[in-house]
């Protein structure tokens, strides 16, 4: 995302920068940041801008890059839903006024937006798995409802879809022109914002959006753990991680003071304000360039925002050091990674089903997967973030298959824990599939310590 492009009225908010999500050779270790334009200290406003992911000029991306003798076999895409209306309200303030109807000539614009709306408004000819069939197919309220996808969110995913179409379909011919329903696998949680984000991406991606071939499966768990969700040890890691978060917050006197000031402004007890998770609502004001709320006691302002955002960044840093979240992530992400390698292995046998898989999910889905893969430097999943697994076959040695992993268009394969070492010892441009398989089947459990060698045992380990 580039942020030179923003309505001029917002200039006072923004350190203008035209960072690209490149990775320079000097900073191989840090994923995403650009050493030339990145502020030396993590700047909360800059981080918030990256998080908003305002659609602007097309981004550079590394998807689909491979030596010419490699053939693309399958692609597995995990997305976070696009920009949404907040899930919480700051008590006693007016909700930010954002319009969730889709208007083709309003910013942000996408050439396919109008066609998307007319296609969706005809209603689905598809039968989705219940309860998805009762959700609206696109956002349509003049004043957004809580958690509803916005026009920005739809455009972000039309853009993702278009980008992936240019690479995977036009360039690599991943799907034949007469593709069939069983060649794509679609799964989403039961929220309208994830279903609609998935539909927008598909609308941008597929050459012909045929309802009869589109079947979304419903995933009740944000971890996409299907039938393997019961995992007591994972929950213990999560409880310890939440305790760590709580203790870090107690130590931050500036944060406490800020919450106190904001609580006075809106005239509620500090505890109640904190419970209303004000950052969620403030990010909406920020991303949509709507001024923060005021009451007769004063205004919530940019300084309050910066303090809370800075604490979030601190929290992420400590989370990486303390490793409790990593334990949670290894167990939380195992089922979905296991499912993904199963799909990849079937594709290596020449099976033509499920060549393109799309999981439309949440930040709490992507974060554990990134963490489990060892991508500790990756930024918190922004709106419409995408994490992609590509499976390739070496035409010169057809029995050899490799994987690439990309996060928001950046190739992070050699930052993953299962492929860091490979890069040092091997001239191969990609990571062997067996590295990923060994990681999911064995090394994820080794990383947890203890003697477990499978998911069930690791989830029920005594004396953790």
TrEMBL record:
Protein name: 2-phosphoxylose phosphatase 1
GO cellular component: Golgi membrane
Cellular localisation: Golgi apparatus membrane
Function: Responsible for the 2-O-dephosphorylation of xylose in the glycosaminoglycan-protein linkage region of proteoglycans thereby regulating the amount of mature glycosaminoglycan (GAG) chains. Sulfated glycosaminoglycans (GAGs), including heparan sulfate and chondroitin sulfate, are synthesized on the so-called common GAG-protein linkage region (GlcUAbeta1-3Galbeta1-3Galbeta1-4Xylbeta1-O-Ser) of core proteins, which is formed by the stepwise addition of monosaccharide residues by the respective specific glycosyltransferases.
Membrane topology type: Single-pass type II membrane protein
Domain of life: Eukaryota
SUPFAM superfamilies tied to this protein: Phosphoglycerate mutase-like
Swiss-Prot/TrEMBL GO biological process terms: chondroitin sulfate proteoglycan biosynthetic process; glycosaminoglycan biosynthetic process
Organism: Nomascus leucogenys
Subunit description: Interacts with B3GAT3; the interaction increases the 2-phosphoxylose phosphatase activity of PXYLP1 during completion of linkage region formation in a B3GAT3-mediated manner.
Keywords recorded for this protein, A-Z: Glycoprotein, Golgi apparatus, Hydrolase, Membrane, Signal-anchor, Transmembrane, Transmembrane helix
Sequence similarity: Belongs to the histidine acid phosphatase family.
GO MF annotation: an example: phosphatase activity
Pfam families: His_Phos_2
Catalytic activity field: 3-O-[beta-D-GlcA-(1->3)-beta-D-Gal-(1->3)-beta-D-Gal-(1->4)-beta-D-2-O-P-Xyl]-L-seryl-[protein] + H2O = 3-O-(beta-D-GlcA-(1->3)-beta-D-Gal-(1->3)-beta-D-Gal-(1->4)-beta-D-Xyl)-L-seryl-[protein] + phosphate
């Amino acid at each position: 995302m580039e942020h030179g492009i923003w309505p001029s009225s917002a200039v006072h908010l923004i350190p203008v920068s035209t960072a690209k999500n490149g990775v320079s050779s000097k900073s191989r270790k840090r994923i995403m940041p650009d050493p030339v334009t990145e502020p030396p200290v993590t700047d909360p406003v800059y981080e918030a801008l990256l998080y908003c992911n305002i659609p602007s000029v097309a981004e550079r991306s590394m998807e689909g890059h491979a030596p010419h003798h490699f053939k693309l076999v399958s692609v597995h895409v995990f997305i976070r839903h696009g920009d949404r209306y907040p899930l919480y309200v700051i008590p006693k303030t007016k909700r930010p006024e954002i319009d969730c109807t889709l208007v083709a000539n309003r910013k942000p614009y996408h050439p396919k937006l109008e066609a998307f709306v007319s296609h969706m408004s005809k209603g689905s000819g598809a039968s989705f798995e219940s309860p998805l069939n009762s959700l609206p197919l696109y956002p349509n309220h003049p004043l957004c409802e809580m958690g509803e996808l916005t026009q920005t969110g739809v455009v972000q995913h039309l853009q993702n879809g278009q980008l992936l179409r240019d690479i995977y379909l036009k360039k690599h011919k991943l799907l034949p022109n007469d593709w069939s329903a069983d060649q794509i696998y679609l799964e989403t949680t039961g929220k309208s914002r994830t279903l609609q984000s998935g539909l927008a991406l598909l609308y941008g991606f597929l050459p012909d959006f045929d309802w009869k071939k589109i079947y979304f499966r419903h995933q009740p768990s944000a971890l996409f753990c299907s039938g393997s969700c019961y995992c007591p040890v994972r929950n213990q890691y999560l409880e310890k991680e939440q305790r760590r978060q709580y203790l870090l917050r107690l130590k931050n006197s500036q944060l406490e003071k800020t919450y106190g000031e904001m609580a006075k402004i809106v005239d509620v007890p500090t505890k109640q304000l904190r419970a209303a998770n004000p950052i969620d609502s403030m990010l909406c004001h920020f991303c949509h360039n709507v001024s923060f709320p005021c009451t007769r006691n004063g205004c919530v302002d940019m300084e309050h925002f910066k303090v809370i955002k800075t604490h979030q960044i601190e929290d992420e840093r400590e989370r990486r050091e303390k490793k409790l979240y990593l334990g949670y992530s290894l167990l939380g992400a195992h089922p979905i990674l296991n499912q993904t390698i199963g799909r990849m292995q079937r594709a290596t046998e020449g099976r033509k089903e499920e060549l393109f898989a799309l999981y439309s999910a949440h930040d709490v889905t992507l974060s554990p997967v990134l963490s489990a893969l060892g991508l500790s430097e990756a930024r918190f999943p922004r709106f419409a973030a995408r994490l992609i697994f590509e499976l390739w076959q070496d035409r010169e040695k057809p029995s050899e298959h490799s994987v690439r992993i990309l996060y928001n268009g950046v190739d992070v394969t050699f930052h993953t824990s299962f492929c860091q070492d490979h890069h040092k010892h091997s001239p191969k441009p990609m990571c062997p599939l067996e590295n990923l398989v060994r990681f999911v089947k064995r090394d994820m459990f080794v990383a947890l310590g203890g003697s477990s060698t499978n998911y069930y045992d690791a989830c029920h380990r005594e004396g953790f």
